[in-house]
Amino acid sequence: MIGRRNTFRTADGIRVPGTWRHVFIRNGDYHLTDLFIYADGLIDCWGLVTLAEFEEKLRCGWVATDLPEGARVSGHELAAWKFSEPHTWLTPELLLAEVRDTVDQLNGRPDSTDRCLDAVDAFLADRTEEKRAVARAAYLAIPRTQRHYALGDMDRQDWPLQVLVAGPGGRVETRPDGDEDPVTQEEYDEAVDYFEDRARWIAESSARVPADGPVTPVAPAIQLYESYPLKSSDDPDTRALRNNYPAPVDVDGVTYPSVAHAYWALSTPDADARASIAAADQAYAAQKLAAAAPRREGWEQARTAVMTRLLRAKFAQHPHLARVLMDTDDATIVYDDGDSAYWGDNGGRGRNWTGRLLELVRSELHAEREGIGLA
User: Which pLDDT tens digit goes with each residue over 28-51?
Assistant: First the structure.
């Protein structure tokens, strides 16, 4: 189960997605460590190995599923102890099956649970004993440790699935009440009703449209590459959305040649430096002047609010530029800033706060146009 454990490694400049789980490795003593599983089928257990090599490490006990009483064990830089009455529900076969499922999940392929549920659907569409046997075999192919997650129902767990693939008079693996009686007709009918209700719920959920629109943008993303010097235009393109675009901004009675000029001027408490920054002929020169001046106390905590105010002022004072921003629809705005990993995306290495704030101001402009009050 991947859950929220997402990681990656880089191979030939490509990010290979992965996840991890805890295991014990036997190297003299036992060691609690993390087993990293990647989409390309490589496993990192103190070194990258293939699935076949990982199977061999399981077979010889180097990746340990048998935890003997009294064995010494440690967690690196955490603690050391001995096993006392250890209990594990993993076997080499189970752990290998879980890892194979994880590789399928990382690649978006059907795993053993998906294959089982597909077989169940086929049985429900044509209820022959042959297809029930196929569904039962697919159920038993799910790692035992994962079967109770198969339906995503933590109240009933996999009980309806066990009953369905066993059939009336058949035997189930485990009963909630601990009895070993065969499946009754009533229990079987309830399981069939469960799957029919489940199918309706899935169909309704997939057809349901979120009340407030799609989760992801409809418009394609826009990349605002670094470009300077910029010149103003009567018919500007998206380069006009950059902070160094020459669009004068009035802030508290002072007019700055661009948002960048205003941002750097407001970053310093030195009045002479602010005047020099405001008079700089290019935004790059304004930044150099600011770099030589002291920063305001608390600037790091205040700078996002300052930039938000400046962007609002820019597009309020220049309606033709506001139209350029609004024409980007709901696109993700990716802003490059070679001087700041805070303001720029920079190939996925930065935080892209300028892009985020442009999207915020764009949404405010759309709300204003539609008469949606924000006060």
Answer: 999 999 999 999 999 999 999 999
pLDDT at 375 over 90: no
Q: Answer for the pair 103, 88: CB distance below 8 angstroms, yes or no.
A: no
In terms of Cα–Cα distance, which of 17, 42, 44, 21 is closest to 32? 21
pTM reported for the whole predicted model = 0.69
Task: Tell me which amino acid residue 62 is.
Answer: W
Inform me whether the pLDDT recorded for 304 exceeds 90: yes
pLDDT at residue 251 in the model: 97
**To the nearest whole percent, how much of the chain has pLDDT over 70?**
98
**Looking at the DSSP assignment, which residues form a beta bridge with residue 74?**
31, 80
The residues, any chain, with a CB within 8 Å of residue 278's CB and separated by 6 or more, are: 254, 255, 256, 257, 261, 262, 265, 286
Query: How far is it, in rounded angstroms, from Cα 375 to Cα 358?
Result: 20
Contact by Cβ (8 Å): 344, 225: no
Band the pLDDT of 227: cuts 50, 70, 90. Answer: confident
